[in-house]
Each structure stands twice: as structure tokens, then as C-alpha cells.
Amino acid sequence: MTELGGTSALVVGGAGFVGGNLVRELLARDAARVLVVDNLLSAERENVPDDERVAFIEGSVADDDVLAQLGDELDHVFHLATYHGNQSSIANPLEDHEHNLITTLKLFERIKDFGRVRKVVYAASGCTLAPHTYGEAEAVVEDGPVPLDLDSPYQISKVVGEFYSVYYHHQHRLPTVRARFQNVYGPGEILGAGRWRGTPATVWRNVTPAFVYRALKGMPLQLENEGRASRDFIYVGDIVDGLLRCATAGKPGDVYNLASGVETSIRELAESIDRLAGNDAGV
User: CA dist 139 to 25, 111, 229, 255, 265, Å?
Assistant: First the structure.
């Protein structure tokens, strides 16, 4: 992907799980400069590579002082900052609005007239539009109706973020591309990162690291409804590859699903992790 060589990129949320992996891959593909903005709410400073090509700004991208430091020398913008997860948004809907929606709106306002930006990749969520079903899943038409009955403030925020992405593309020709994430797992994902460490609504928010932690500690893995629910789990390296493809080959104004295409039940996941960790406590 030589299109990234010598380019300048902004990664909002670049100290997070996905963001840190993305920054390292940008450097591996010879990006000339990577600017990371992260308030470390749910991220760790250690995730930002110690590389002379990387600059780090600690703060929210909704902060005017932070926005003032963004200049028109960016080739690619990756907006990964989020108030992550359904549980945390249900516990704190106002904070979800602040960190999911205000950040998106203020970032787009700041960069809408930048002339150099080739692509703005917005991290959307696959859980907002797909119907929640049991049994055989069916593909969703991308220009189909948007459901109003959503399960959490997080889902509401992420779909409104998509609305803003489309609006700014149509109104200001901002070259936005929406990347809908499925359930990401892999290296760098830790329980309750940043200022969220230890808080009840956030520490167990992702099933894979929660199961891995408990299995390594010899604790039983807890299932709801016998683990019948299923998800599409995608490895973080594949998400990063998808984000970079969105940035280099994505069509402005369009949307792409980043997923494995394979359904795995929570029970299957639990049993696999128990087997790999040698955990005899079971589920």
C-alpha cells in the first residue's frame, strides 16, 4: 500500500487498542508523520510508539486548544475516538454524547475546509443498523431504513456520527468514509484501560479479554442464556488493514463493513479460550 509512504496522518484515539495498532502499521508502511490525539479516558500512553515520526497531544479532540493545533498538512484522518461500548453509555449517557458526538462534530467542523485531506475515515459500528436476530442472519441493505429502536446511547451516537459523515461529505465535500466495526479482539486490548480501570460499567465491557483474564486466573467463565448469542469477531490486524484500505481505496461518502463474515457463539468462544488456557474451571 505505497499510497501511505511519505504521507501525514492524524489518528484521533491513537492511544487506544485499535488506534495503537493502526499507528504502528502506518509507521511500518512508511508514513512520514503521525499525529496522535487521545485524552487517555480509555487508553494508555504506552500504546503510542516511541518514534520520531509520532507526535502526541493528550486531550480531547473536542477541546478548542487541541483543535487549534491541527493544521492543513494532513493527508489522512482516522477518527477512532469513542466512548466505547454499550454498558458504559447506558451508565453515563451524557458522557457518551460528549465523547462520541461532540468530538465528531467539532473535528469535522475544524477540517471541513482543509485542502490537502485525501480521506477521513470514521469508525462506525456494525451494531447500530443490523437487526438483532436469532437463527440465520441476513444481509442488510445499506440504504435501507434506519431503526429508531436502538439499545443504547452508544448505538445512537454512532449512527448519528454516520449522519454527520454523510452530511459533511455532501455539504462541504469532506471526503468521509465510514468503516463499520464488528467485534474486534487481539493484542493491546486490556481490561478497563486508562481512567476507566476498575470502574464497574467499563472493566468487563469486552468479552474476549474478560474471558482470557478469567481463564488465565483459573476462574469459571460466566455465560448469559448459556452463551447462545453469537457475534462476528474480527482480529485487530484485519481491522487495521480495513481502515487503511478505506483510506486509500474507499469511495468518499461510502460505507464499508469490516468483519470476518463468520458467526461465533459466546459459548464457542468461552470453550475455545478455556481449552487454550488450560482452564479446568469451565463455564
Answer: 31, 34, 18, 14, 18
**Residue whose C-alpha cell is 483459573:** 218
Res 1 pLDDT > 60 = no
Question: What is the tally of helices (H) and strands (E) in the chain?
Answer: 10, 10
User: Tell me, what's the pLDDT at 151?
Assistant: 87
| Residues facing 3 on adjacent strands | none
Q: What was the pLDDT predicted at 31? A: 97
Q: How many residues does the chain have?
A: 283
Q: Is the confidence at residue 80, as pLDDT, over 50?
A: yes
Long-range contacts of 163-170, Cβ-Cβ distance < 8 Å, separation of 24 or more: 164/104, 164/105, 164/108, 165/104, 165/108, 165/120, 165/122, 165/124, 166/253, 168/108, 168/112, 169/252, 169/253, 170/253
Other beta carbons within 10 angstroms of residue 59's beta carbon come to 14
DSSP 111-139: HTT-SS--EEEEEEETTTTS---SSS--P
* Beta pairing, strands 230-235 & 263-265: antiparallel
Question: Torsion angle of alpha carbons 51, 57, 59, 64, nearest 10°?
Answer: -160
Quote the pTM value: 0.92
Average pLDDT, the chain: 91
Q: What are phi and psi for residue 176, nearest 5 degrees?
A: -80, 145
